[in-house]
Structure formats: structure tokens, C-alpha cells
Write a structure and sequence with these properties.
- The complex is a heterodimer of chains A (about 120) and B (about 140).
- The longest helix of chain A is centred in the middle third of the chain and has 16 residues.
- In chain A, helix 1 links the parallel strand 2 and strand 3.
- The relative contact order of chain A is 0.19.
- Chain A is built from four helices and five strands, in the order ββαβαβαβα.
- In chain A, about 40% of the residues lie in helices and about 35% in strands.
- Chain A has a five-stranded mixed beta sheet, with helices on both faces.
- Chain A has one domain: Transcription Regulator spoIIAA, CATH 3.30.750.
- Chain B has a single domain, classed as 2-Layer Sandwich (Heat Shock Protein 90).
- In chain B, helix 1 runs antiparallel to helix 2 and helix 2 runs antiparallel to helix 3.
- Classes of the chains: A alpha/beta (about 120), B alpha+beta (about 140).
- Chains A and B meet through helix 2 and helix 3 of A and helix 1, helix 2 and helix 3 of B.
Chain lengths: ~120, ~140
């Protein structure tokens, strides 16, 4: 029941690795991290959800808020997500149509670099 | 789990994960559910607990989850012990347009609806409860 966040960079694109559970208790830390990345000059961010064990609507809300923040300045927030249990949450809410979703960090970074 | 089991913790966000784990462990032990059903239940319980915590009015409010078994279903009530009016679970809530979704949009109830067989708001003994019903057989049932 913990959340670990790890920021790396690949080909000039910031990659935020999310590990653990994102719920009403831990989502504020994810929100804060995304805000810090936006205010520190990153305009394209890849959020890697492959190590996420649990994601609820609070976590979704934070990701949507982050997406809007980056797109407002002409950037983007791209997701890496292949886990069925996590993908299902995006599918139920229709958010697969809103986010740019990818099977790997490399694919997401390539997509971020091409825009 | 032939008699109801009740978990009662402070209505604070840091306890939602604990309840999610306790309830899903109990269900996995007592009911015949596959991994996807269990994942759905974990999320539904978490969403219901989030609604209760978000709406808890009193400083000393509780977060209570009671689990009751029926032959072909599990019934889970989530409430704060009284004093809080919970949002309605009826009507055409629908999911917000994802393109217009805001962080503050209330998704939990809509998500719960998609994850369990039935969700309703029930008022009993002056307490508003979110009631979830999940169809599943008992372990050992034919």
C-alpha cells in the first residue's frame, strides 16, 4: 500500500515511473510530482504505469488533470499501460480515447518525440 | 463467513487501502471468485470507501464495511456509522464526457456500477449505506 515515483529521462523526454498503489491516499503525491515536472520546464511527459498494482478514480483524476496541464502549454502526457486490470479502468471511463496510450516506454518516448 | 463480518476503522484516506486488502482477502477465502472478479471487487470497495470518506462530516467519523453472505451473492455495505448523507446511486448518472472530465468529477459511483452486479444507496437505522451486491458462489458449493 505504498507509492514510489521515479523520474528518468530518455531521448530528452521525462519518464515518470509509478510503482505501487494509486488511490485517494497516495494520489496527492502523484499530483504534486506532475505539477513539479510541469513547472520545471518539461512539456512532454511519459507516465509508466506498468508497475502499478492498483489505480482508482482518484488516480485517474490526477492523470486527467496532468494531461490538461501539459496540453494547455502545447505539450502532452503519454501513458504506458498494458496490464489488464489497469487498462480496464481507463476503458470503463472512456479515457483510452483521451490519453495517448502505449505498450512500452520506448514507444511512448518515440511518440512524444515525434510531436 | 456465515455470519456477517464488519470492519470498522477511522474514516480517513490512509485506511482505504487497508480495508481494500482486508475485504478482498476475506472474499477470496470464502467465495468462488476469479482474479478479474477480485480485482473488480477491490476497486469497487475502494471507490465506495472513498465516497464515504469524502462525504464524512464528523471529525470522529468511522468507515465501516460489513460483509454478508447469501447463497449466490455477497452483499457489502459501506457507511460511516451515521451522520453523513451520501450521494444518490440511482438515476442516470452516466460517465462524464472523458474529453471534458475534470479532476473533481465524481467517478466513483459510476465506476462501481460497472464493476459489481448491483449498487444502491440504502438508508437503514438512520444510516446511509452504499450497498454492493456481487454474484458469486460459496467456496465448496456445487
Amino acid at each position: 500500500m505504498d507509492l514510489r515515483l521515479e523520474v528518468t529521462e530518455q531521448d530528452g523526454v521525462a519518464v515518470l515511473g509509478v510503482h505501487g498503489e494509486v488511490d485517494v491516499s497516495t494520489a496527492p503525491r502523484l499530483r504534486q510530482q506532475l505539477v513539479e515536472m510541469a513547472t520545471s520546464g518539461h512539456d512532454r511527459v511519459v507516465v509508466d504505469l506498468e508497475a502499478v498494482d492498483f489505480l482508482d478514480s482518484t488516480g485517474l483524476g490526477v492523470l486527467v488533470s496532468g494531461l490538461k496541464r501539459f496540453r494547455t502549454v502545447g505539450g502532452d502526457l503519454l501513458l504506458v499501460c498494458t496490464q489488464r486490470r489497469i487498462l480496464k479502468v481507463f476503458e470503463i471511463t472512456g479515457l483510452t480515447k483521451v490519453f495517448s496510450m502505449h505498450d512500452s516506454v520506448a514507444a511512448a518516448v518515440a511518440a512524444a518525440s515525434s510531436t | 463467513m456465515t455470519s456477517p463480518v464488519e470492519f470498522d476503522v477511522p474514516a480517513r484516506v490512509e485506511y482505504v487501502g487497508l480495508l481494500r486488502m482486508l475485504v478482498s482477502s476475506l472474499v477470496a477465502d470464502r467465495r468462488r471468485v476469479d482474479d478479474e472478479q477480485l480485482d473488480d471487487l477491490r476497486l469497487a470497495i475502494s471507490e465506495a470507501c472513498t465516497v464515504v470518506v469524502d462525504n464524512a462530516a464528523a471529525q470522529d467519523a468511522r468507515l465501516v464495511v460489513s460483509c454478508r453472505e447469501e447463497p449466490d451473492a455477497l452483499v457489502l455495505d459501506v457507511h460511516d456509522g451515521g451522520g453523513t448523507a451520501l450521494p444518490s446511486t440511482s438515476g442516470d448518472l452516466g460517465l462524464p464526457d472523458p474529453e471534458r472530465l475534470d479532476e473533481d468529477d465524481a467517478l466513483p459511483l459510476e465506476l462501481i456500477r460497472a464493476l459489481v452486479d448491483d449498487v444502491s444507496k440504502v438508508s437503514e437505522d438512520g444510516i446511509d449505506r452504499i450497498r454492493l451486491r456481487v454474484k458469486c458462489a460459496r467456496v465448496g458449493a456445487d
